[in-house]
Write a structure and sequence with these properties.
Elements: E1 9-12, H1 22-29, E2 36-42, H2 54-60, E3 67-73, H3 81-87, E4 91-95, H4 102-114, E5 118-123, E6 141-145, H5 161-170, E7 175-179, H6 187-193, E8 197-200, H7 202-205, H8 210-225
Parallel strand pairs: 1-8, 2-3, 3-4, 4-5, 5-6, 6-7, 7-8
Helix pairs in contact: 2-3, 5-6, 6-8
The chain binds ribulose-5-phosphate and cobalt (II) ion.
Length: 238
Protein backbone atom coordinates (compact mmCIF):
# COMPACT_ATOMS: atom_id res chain seq x y z
CA UNK A 1 0.00 0.00 0.00
CA UNK A 2 1.34 3.44 -0.90
CA UNK A 3 0.79 6.61 1.05
CA UNK A 4 -0.80 9.23 -1.21
CA UNK A 5 0.10 12.77 -0.16
CA UNK A 6 -2.11 14.79 -2.48
CA UNK A 7 0.35 17.62 -2.11
CA UNK A 8 0.30 20.35 -4.77
CA UNK A 9 3.35 20.32 -7.03
CA UNK A 10 4.41 22.14 -10.17
CA UNK A 11 7.02 20.17 -12.08
CA UNK A 12 9.02 22.11 -14.68
CA UNK A 13 9.86 19.78 -17.56
CA UNK A 14 13.56 20.15 -18.37
CA UNK A 15 12.87 19.02 -21.94
CA UNK A 16 11.96 22.66 -22.65
CA UNK A 17 15.04 24.24 -21.08
CA UNK A 18 18.37 25.28 -22.60
CA UNK A 19 19.97 21.84 -22.59
CA UNK A 20 23.48 23.29 -22.82
CA UNK A 21 22.90 24.64 -19.31
CA UNK A 22 20.95 21.78 -17.75
CA UNK A 23 22.11 22.24 -14.14
CA UNK A 24 21.72 26.04 -14.19
CA UNK A 25 18.27 25.70 -15.72
CA UNK A 26 17.18 23.14 -13.09
CA UNK A 27 18.33 25.48 -10.33
CA UNK A 28 16.66 28.47 -11.95
CA UNK A 29 13.22 26.85 -11.73
CA UNK A 30 13.66 24.41 -8.80
CA UNK A 31 16.30 25.73 -6.39
CA UNK A 32 15.27 24.05 -3.10
CA UNK A 33 14.64 20.58 -1.75
CA UNK A 34 10.92 21.44 -1.70
CA UNK A 35 10.96 21.80 -5.50
CA UNK A 36 10.54 19.31 -8.34
CA UNK A 37 11.89 18.74 -11.84
CA UNK A 38 10.30 16.48 -14.46
CA UNK A 39 12.77 14.49 -16.58
CA UNK A 40 11.48 12.93 -19.80
CA UNK A 41 13.34 9.81 -20.85
CA UNK A 42 12.61 8.77 -24.46
CA UNK A 43 14.04 5.73 -26.20
CA UNK A 44 13.24 6.46 -29.86
CA UNK A 45 11.06 3.32 -29.89
CA UNK A 46 8.08 3.78 -27.58
CA UNK A 47 8.05 7.38 -28.85
CA UNK A 48 9.62 8.72 -32.07
CA UNK A 49 12.15 10.88 -30.23
CA UNK A 50 15.29 10.58 -28.11
CA UNK A 51 16.16 12.67 -25.07
CA UNK A 52 18.52 11.43 -22.37
CA UNK A 53 19.07 8.43 -20.14
CA UNK A 54 20.54 7.56 -16.75
CA UNK A 55 24.05 9.00 -17.41
CA UNK A 56 22.71 12.54 -17.88
CA UNK A 57 20.41 12.24 -14.85
CA UNK A 58 23.34 10.95 -12.78
CA UNK A 59 25.48 13.95 -13.81
CA UNK A 60 22.70 16.38 -12.96
CA UNK A 61 21.89 14.88 -9.56
CA UNK A 62 24.79 16.35 -7.51
CA UNK A 63 23.98 19.83 -8.88
CA UNK A 64 20.30 19.86 -7.88
CA UNK A 65 18.41 19.66 -4.59
CA UNK A 66 15.07 19.09 -6.35
CA UNK A 67 12.93 15.95 -6.39
CA UNK A 68 13.60 14.06 -9.65
CA UNK A 69 10.32 12.97 -11.24
CA UNK A 70 11.38 10.69 -14.10
CA UNK A 71 8.85 9.94 -16.87
CA UNK A 72 9.97 6.88 -18.81
CA UNK A 73 8.65 6.86 -22.37
CA UNK A 74 10.44 3.58 -23.11
CA UNK A 75 9.40 0.16 -24.39
CA UNK A 76 11.21 -1.86 -21.71
CA UNK A 77 11.05 0.05 -18.42
CA UNK A 78 12.16 -2.94 -16.31
CA UNK A 79 15.63 -2.69 -17.88
CA UNK A 80 16.01 0.85 -16.58
CA UNK A 81 15.12 0.41 -12.90
CA UNK A 82 18.62 -0.22 -11.53
CA UNK A 83 20.31 2.51 -13.59
CA UNK A 84 17.65 5.10 -12.74
CA UNK A 85 17.84 4.31 -9.03
CA UNK A 86 21.63 4.66 -9.11
CA UNK A 87 21.33 7.88 -11.09
CA UNK A 88 19.14 9.42 -8.38
CA UNK A 89 15.59 9.21 -9.72
CA UNK A 90 13.05 9.78 -6.93
CA UNK A 91 9.90 8.85 -8.88
CA UNK A 92 9.92 6.24 -11.66
CA UNK A 93 6.82 6.50 -13.86
CA UNK A 94 6.33 3.99 -16.66
CA UNK A 95 3.63 3.60 -19.31
CA UNK A 96 0.92 0.98 -18.86
CA UNK A 97 0.78 0.48 -22.67
CA UNK A 98 4.10 -1.45 -22.68
CA UNK A 99 3.05 -3.99 -20.03
CA UNK A 100 2.06 -7.40 -21.37
CA UNK A 101 -0.07 -8.45 -18.38
CA UNK A 102 -1.00 -7.72 -14.78
CA UNK A 103 1.75 -9.97 -13.42
CA UNK A 104 4.46 -8.07 -15.29
CA UNK A 105 3.07 -4.75 -14.03
CA UNK A 106 2.99 -5.96 -10.42
CA UNK A 107 6.59 -7.22 -10.54
CA UNK A 108 7.78 -3.96 -12.08
CA UNK A 109 6.07 -1.93 -9.33
CA UNK A 110 7.76 -4.17 -6.77
CA UNK A 111 11.19 -3.79 -8.40
CA UNK A 112 10.87 0.02 -8.50
CA UNK A 113 9.96 0.14 -4.80
CA UNK A 114 12.70 -2.32 -3.86
CA UNK A 115 15.11 0.11 -5.54
CA UNK A 116 13.85 2.84 -3.17
CA UNK A 117 12.02 4.91 -5.76
CA UNK A 118 8.43 6.04 -5.74
CA UNK A 119 6.35 4.51 -8.49
CA UNK A 120 3.89 5.98 -10.97
CA UNK A 121 1.99 4.69 -14.00
CA UNK A 122 1.25 6.86 -17.05
CA UNK A 123 -1.57 6.56 -19.58
CA UNK A 124 -1.45 7.87 -23.15
CA UNK A 125 -4.42 9.86 -24.48
CA UNK A 126 -6.02 6.86 -26.22
CA UNK A 127 -5.59 4.52 -23.22
CA UNK A 128 -8.52 4.03 -20.83
CA UNK A 129 -7.69 5.22 -17.32
CA UNK A 130 -9.40 2.13 -15.89
CA UNK A 131 -6.29 0.13 -16.96
CA UNK A 132 -4.46 1.50 -13.90
CA UNK A 133 -7.24 0.95 -11.33
CA UNK A 134 -6.05 -2.54 -10.25
CA UNK A 135 -2.66 -1.08 -9.28
CA UNK A 136 -3.53 2.20 -7.58
CA UNK A 137 -3.22 0.84 -4.03
CA UNK A 138 0.46 0.11 -4.74
CA UNK A 139 1.22 3.33 -6.60
CA UNK A 140 2.39 6.76 -5.51
CA UNK A 141 0.98 8.50 -8.55
CA UNK A 142 -0.99 8.18 -11.80
CA UNK A 143 0.06 10.33 -14.76
CA UNK A 144 -2.61 11.31 -17.30
CA UNK A 145 -0.96 12.46 -20.55
CA UNK A 146 -2.59 15.57 -22.01
CA UNK A 147 -0.60 15.30 -25.28
CA UNK A 148 0.63 12.31 -27.29
CA UNK A 149 3.97 11.54 -25.62
CA UNK A 150 7.19 12.26 -27.47
CA UNK A 151 7.54 16.02 -27.84
CA UNK A 152 7.28 19.18 -25.78
CA UNK A 153 5.37 22.26 -26.91
CA UNK A 154 2.20 20.50 -28.12
CA UNK A 155 -1.40 21.64 -27.60
CA UNK A 156 -3.20 20.62 -24.39
CA UNK A 157 -5.96 18.02 -24.85
CA UNK A 158 -8.83 19.24 -22.68
CA UNK A 159 -10.77 16.05 -23.44
CA UNK A 160 -8.44 14.18 -21.06
CA UNK A 161 -10.03 15.91 -18.04
CA UNK A 162 -12.76 13.26 -17.54
CA UNK A 163 -9.94 10.76 -16.82
CA UNK A 164 -8.59 13.06 -14.12
CA UNK A 165 -12.08 13.56 -12.68
CA UNK A 166 -12.66 9.81 -12.56
CA UNK A 167 -9.36 9.18 -10.77
CA UNK A 168 -10.02 11.96 -8.27
CA UNK A 169 -13.54 10.67 -7.57
CA UNK A 170 -12.46 7.05 -7.11
CA UNK A 171 -9.18 7.76 -5.28
CA UNK A 172 -9.59 10.99 -3.30
CA UNK A 173 -6.06 11.00 -1.87
CA UNK A 174 -4.13 9.80 -4.92
CA UNK A 175 -1.50 12.10 -6.43
CA UNK A 176 -2.76 12.71 -9.99
CA UNK A 177 -0.28 14.18 -12.45
CA UNK A 178 -1.02 15.79 -15.82
CA UNK A 179 1.61 16.36 -18.51
CA UNK A 180 1.58 18.17 -21.82
CA UNK A 181 0.67 21.66 -23.02
CA UNK A 182 -0.13 23.01 -19.56
CA UNK A 183 0.32 26.63 -18.49
CA UNK A 184 -1.47 29.52 -16.75
CA UNK A 185 -4.21 29.49 -19.44
CA UNK A 186 -5.44 25.96 -18.64
CA UNK A 187 -4.15 25.21 -15.12
CA UNK A 188 -7.55 26.01 -13.56
CA UNK A 189 -9.19 23.36 -15.75
CA UNK A 190 -6.64 20.74 -14.59
CA UNK A 191 -6.92 21.77 -10.95
CA UNK A 192 -10.73 21.76 -10.98
CA UNK A 193 -10.69 18.26 -12.48
CA UNK A 194 -8.55 17.18 -9.52
CA UNK A 195 -4.96 17.08 -10.76
CA UNK A 196 -2.43 18.09 -8.09
CA UNK A 197 0.92 17.35 -9.81
CA UNK A 198 1.28 19.58 -12.84
CA UNK A 199 4.08 19.21 -15.40
CA UNK A 200 4.85 22.39 -17.32
CA UNK A 201 7.67 22.68 -19.84
CA UNK A 202 7.27 25.39 -22.47
CA UNK A 203 5.01 27.60 -20.34
CA UNK A 204 7.66 27.81 -17.60
CA UNK A 205 10.84 28.04 -19.65
CA UNK A 206 9.45 30.46 -22.26
CA UNK A 207 8.14 32.81 -19.55
CA UNK A 208 10.02 36.02 -18.67
CA UNK A 209 9.62 35.11 -15.01
CA UNK A 210 9.41 31.31 -14.57
CA UNK A 211 9.04 31.54 -10.77
CA UNK A 212 5.97 33.74 -11.15
CA UNK A 213 4.37 31.17 -13.47
CA UNK A 214 5.19 28.36 -11.03
CA UNK A 215 3.77 30.22 -8.01
CA UNK A 216 0.59 31.26 -9.82
CA UNK A 217 0.00 27.71 -11.06
CA UNK A 218 0.56 26.27 -7.58
CA UNK A 219 -1.90 28.78 -6.23
CA UNK A 220 -4.51 27.52 -8.69
CA UNK A 221 -4.12 23.92 -7.50
CA UNK A 222 -4.37 24.98 -3.88
CA UNK A 223 -7.45 27.03 -4.63
CA UNK A 224 -9.33 24.58 -6.83
CA UNK A 225 -7.78 21.26 -5.93
CA UNK A 226 -7.38 21.38 -2.18
CA UNK A 227 -10.39 23.53 -1.40
CA UNK A 228 -8.42 26.26 0.38
CA UNK A 229 -9.88 29.75 0.47
CA UNK A 230 -8.01 32.66 -1.16
CA UNK A 231 -7.38 34.10 2.29
CA UNK A 232 -5.31 31.05 3.26
CA UNK A 233 -2.90 31.45 0.36
CA UNK A 234 0.43 33.21 0.58
CA UNK A 235 0.64 36.31 -1.62
CA UNK A 236 2.41 36.12 -4.99
CA UNK A 237 5.94 37.55 -4.97
CA UNK A 238 6.14 41.16 -6.15
O1 LIG B 1 6.19 14.04 -21.50
C1 LIG B 1 6.34 15.02 -22.20
C2 LIG B 1 6.24 14.92 -23.69
O2 LIG B 1 6.05 13.61 -24.05
C3 LIG B 1 6.70 16.36 -21.56
O3 LIG B 1 6.79 16.20 -20.17
C4 LIG B 1 5.70 17.45 -21.91
O4 LIG B 1 5.52 17.59 -23.26
C5 LIG B 1 6.05 18.78 -21.23
O5 LIG B 1 6.30 19.80 -22.12
P1 LIG B 1 5.23 20.95 -22.50
O6 LIG B 1 4.71 21.53 -21.21
O7 LIG B 1 6.04 21.91 -23.32
O8 LIG B 1 4.13 20.28 -23.28
CO1 LIG C 1 6.69 14.01 -19.37
Amino acid sequence: MSFHTRSPAILPSLLACDLAKLADEANRVAPTSEDYVHLDVMDGHFVPNLSWGAPVIKCLKPHSKAFFDVHLMVSEPAKWVKDMAEAGANMFTFHIEVMKDEQETRSLIQAIKAANMKCGIAVKPKTAVSTVFPFVDDLDLVLVMTVEPGFGGQAFMADMMPKVEELREKFPNLDVEVDGGIGPNNIDECAKAGANWIVAGSSVFKAKNPQEVIVSMKRSIEKHGNGKADADLTPLPA
